[in-house]
């Protein structure tokens, strides 16, 4: 184990392994915070329209961070682990790790570019309809248009949450555990 010197710190700063670890840690930390801590606290303590508007502003930054860092992770993995083979399916880590990193990138990009904006649009329409009709989204007296928006929102939000959990967070944890035990 080398001693900590300015030279060794500089070397660690520009090391692909260090960049990989920092990007992976940031991805997992942001994912856990947004999905299970900050989001839950806001949901329980803010009025629903305020919570929704904060999420609408927060999620593009979160998905941009996730997709960018995941793409960096994939690039580092493919560039510095010459045995990685994303295009030869197997149960070997040379395929699984790049596959999981690809999943993380694609799921975050999908949420950023398509699902997130679609969900936000439905949410805004629901808020506008609530203001117009003076009836909350979950009021039994809500009309057919609100019921339609509720169904659309539920589907879109479910897809977004599933992509985040199964396409991003779980793969992030698996990659972290693998790299922690076996390295890049």
From TrEMBL:
Transmembrane segments: 29-46, 58-76, 96-116, 155-180
Organism of derivation: Cronartium quercuum f. sp. fusiforme G11
GO CC term (a single one): membrane
The protein's name in its UniProt record: TMEM205-like domain-containing protein
Keyword field contains Phosphoprotein: no
Keywords: Membrane, Transmembrane, Transmembrane helix
Entry's localization field: Membrane
Main location: membrane
Species lineage: Eukaryota, Fungi, Dikarya, Basidiomycota, Pucciniomycotina
Annotated ranges, domain TMEM205-like: 22-127
């Amino acid at each position: 184990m080398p001693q900590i010197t300015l030279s060794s710190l500089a070397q660690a700063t520009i090391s692909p392994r260090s960049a990989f670890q920092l990007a992976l840690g940031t991805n997992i930390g942001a994912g856990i915070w947004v999905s299970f801590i900050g989001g839950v606290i806001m949901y329980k303590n803010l009025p629903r329209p305020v919570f929704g508007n904060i999420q609408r502003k927060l999620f593009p930054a979160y998905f941009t961070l996730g997709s960018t860092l995941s793409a960096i992770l994939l690039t580092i993995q493919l560039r510095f682990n010459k045995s990685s083979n994303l295009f030869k399916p197997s149960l070997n880590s040379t395929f699984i790790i790049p596959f999981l990193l690809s999943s993380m990138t694609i799921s975050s990009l999908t949420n950023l570019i398509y699902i997130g904006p679609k969900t936000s649009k439905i949410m805004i329409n629901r808020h506008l309809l609530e203001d117009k009709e003076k009836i909350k989204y979950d009021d039994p007296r809500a009309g057919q248009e609100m019921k339609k928006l509720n169904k659309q929102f539920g589907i879109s939000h479910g897809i977004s949450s599933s992509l985040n959990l199964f396409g991003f967070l779980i793969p992030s944890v698996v990659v972290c555990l693998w790299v922690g035990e076996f390295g890049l």
